[in-house]
Amino acid sequence: MDEKRDRLKESSHQLAVSCALCAVCLLGHVSHIFAAKPPWIHVFHSVGFHVSLSLFTLLGPGRQLILDGVKSLSKGAPNMNTLVGLGALSSFAVSSLAALIPKLGWKAFFEEPIMLIAFVLLGRNLEQRAKIKATSDMTGLLSVLPTKARLLVNGDAKDLGSIVEVPCSSLSVGDKIVVLPGDRVPADGTVTAGRSTIDESSFTGEPLPVTKLPGSQVSAGSINLNGTLTIEIKRPGGETAMGDIVRLVEEAQSREAPVQRLADKVSGHFTYGVMTISAATFVFWSMFGTRILPAALNQGNPISLALQLSCSVLVVACPCALGLATPTAVLVGTSLGATRGLLLRGGNVLEKFSMVNSVVFDKTGTLTIGRPAVTKVVPLGGMKITDSQLNPDAMLSEVELLKLAAGVESNTIHPVGKAIVEAAQAAGCQNVKVTDGTFMEEPGSGAVATIENKVVSIGTLDWIQRHGVDEKPFQEVEDLKNQSVVYVGVDNTLAGLIYFEDQIREDARQVVESLSCEGINVYMLSGDKKSTAEHVASLVGIPKEKVLSGVKPDEKKRFISELQKDQSIVAMVGDGINDAGALAESHVGVAMGGGVGAASEVSSIVLMGNRLSQVLDALELSRLTMKTVKQNLWWAFAYNIVGIPIAAGMLLPVNGTILTPSIAGALMGLSSIGVMTNSLLLRFKFSLKQKKVYGASPNTKIDVDSVLLYQKEKTKQPYSDSRWGEV
């Protein structure tokens, strides 16, 4: 990345110098046209000054470009730089001869190499900026790893004096480390002592922590929540699971993306063709032209005329319009995406996304919110409230049960506990305090505390039974197998159950339906169990046969590869580190803006608004951008088809018109301006397209959320999203 940024910096410097030289050259022409009187200003349009500017341009900003073109030609693989180099060098050579030997009667056009190099460098700079955005570094991926670890020197975890902090890079297999609550695990290993719950959501994508006991495996980068663990190192440094994910990403990014641009596909043939036409133009006008058309001698010496026309062919065909066709449209498309909360990394991304026929969604954090939420509170009918402030015969309500559970869970950092506290706040429950010194938590089991002289335990059935509840759970009336549950015990009574699950995003079903209606295959991957994954898929409209559950990061990447073998253009939508390999492997990786930074780093598109509906926005924008690119390319080729014959002197026999290299350069500039103007109209086209598609009236601002709202009203489905578009 540093090397690419250095190259971009160098390119920007060269472009700035070239544009400055071009501006000085144009100043001289303008002063000459308007007959400026100050004597010093005449220096700017003198031959000697133009020679100096042209020579400085060729040896300075244009040197790399010309050398690359000459090397490519010598290897038998001419490219666009070859045309630029030949056009610039021939213009300078002919102009130098004309200046040194005035008797030849040739015309000098030293300004051609200056303007030529400036236009080409502008296109290349825009292209480099687009490409550097398309490549991510690994800093976000590696930022989840701690830099230091607590090394246990003598193997006795009880003796704090035996624990020293060391750099993680110095750890080796067999070392024992201590991980305190709130710390990230510094290396892969096996738990040898302690009990805790570990948040592995950055790897597995699942929101619920996993209980770790002696003998359990832990991965570097996962978060230790509420217990102290002693871990024996099995895979340190770059050998960790995180290192494997980094290698998956690098492997996917190192493959060169297939070049789709028409200009690049035909560049070799185009270059040979232009060189051939230029040579034929010189031969014709130097040997036969003036004999067939004596009037052509009015244009000057036959050799001078032939050189001028052949240079004009090279100059007029210089691929500025071809070079700018894609970068300018991409620049406008990406900036337009940014205003819509879409981070788009380059033209190849837009090109690929416009052709996508398969979209793969991660489950947790993508189709779902990514954190547990309380869905149902079920109090037991036989539990009475004994609070003196209330009716002694009143039954324990859902709110009361939630209030007691939240009182206990307010002392924990467990995601389920946070979900219960949030649900209690949403229900308007009063805050209740735990009696000092009574709170106790066991990782993976539950928590217990005394509240208002009641012993309230919450967690697994085994946990509440260990704290005085000897009843068997009642027969559940509803089938909630796809949800998780915690038991709540008050004193010696089973008070009730609290169900929770990872909630579906409000716009998930509409996005899946819209993609399916366009003929795009939609799949879902999940590290969760099969029943939960299929339950979520059924809610959003994805068939069971297109659901893959219990998959690890490398299996996600392998699934993407298998889809690509079937000639599918695959987009992967995810949010976590566990998705990084699959996001990088896919043709287009789409990351949710609220996900882990590593996913954003390796993705081609980042949904900064953290809304799935932005996938539809990005799809429409990419299609329209590529349509603009194709229009630009057709314009560039049409310009060359018309411009090259005129530059070769086709109109000379008809009306005596020829294109001097200066006029040819001006036309080349106009073709580039036409391309850029069409690209700038993309913003208007995108707004107009949405109005036509969704039937909006003029002067209506509309976004995808508004469209989803309209669809829900049309299908009589409830709409609970508070994000309304301005209609």
UniProtKB/TrEMBL annotation:
One Pfam family named in its UniProt record: E1-E2_ATPase
Principal place of residence: membrane
Keyword tags: ATP-binding, Membrane, Metal-binding, Nucleotide-binding, Translocase, Transmembrane, Transmembrane helix
This protein's GO CC annotations: membrane
Keyword Heme: no
Keyword Mitochondrion: no
Family: Belongs to the cation transport ATPase (P-type) (TC 3.A.3) family. Type IB subfamily.
Protein name stated in the entry: P-type ATPase A domain-containing protein
Lineage summary: Eukaryota, Viridiplantae, Streptophyta, Embryophyta, Tracheophyta
